[in-house]
Give the backbone structure.
Amino acid sequence: MKEFELENGELVVLQVRKHWFVFVLELLPYAIAVIFPFVLPKLSEIIVPMGQYLEFASFSSPLYSTALGIWLLVVWTSAWGAFTRYFLNVWVLTTQRIITIKQRNFFNREVAGLLLTRVQDVSTNVSGLLPSLVGYGNIKVQTAGAEIHFTIRDIPHPAIMRDLIFKYIPEEDSEITGV
Amino acid sequence: MPTGVSFGILFKFTLYIVIIFWAIYTVIVIYHWLKYSHGSWVAYPAIVTHLGVSLVLILFAFYGAFII
């Protein structure tokens, strides 16, 4: 890890990203955009006012091939950008800290850490049909004192992450939190 | 359409503009993969797949553009 230095004796326990299903849902608009130009020639046959574009909206038309190529290139590149942002957003649990790495946009990256000694409470929230079926949800980590809380969204099996956080909270704090 | 400008010329021009933007965007995203993926094995297949698929689509678009 180059973006944060591990302390002496600190080990990476778990590294998580959003659940893959959430990413697939984010890809839906791109999938619709890919299908659209293939449906367009059929639509121009069915819908009467579009009939004048029938000659253009045909796969045998060079003009349509160029337009299709441009369209698919734009959609593909955008989807690849979305995958990149998905992959570069990550949460890391170490034996001492929770580190969040947020790639909001390109050239807009945020790395923040929270010491486990400051953790007061950890709660999970799996809400809705799809999260319950597929198995993803949120974790809310609350700290003592400054009322800072830290939310990790849409990760797979949040209960496992919560248990691991509790496991690595140092003993003296465990007594305070009752863990 | 303005006099003397055909759809063919307009599409070719659009194709060149899109390719310039694609090249800039691709360089930026590859930079992010190489710098921030922490040496993950996913980085290189992701970059190669993007370049491969993009090349096919660019050739497809050019194929139409050269027939126009």
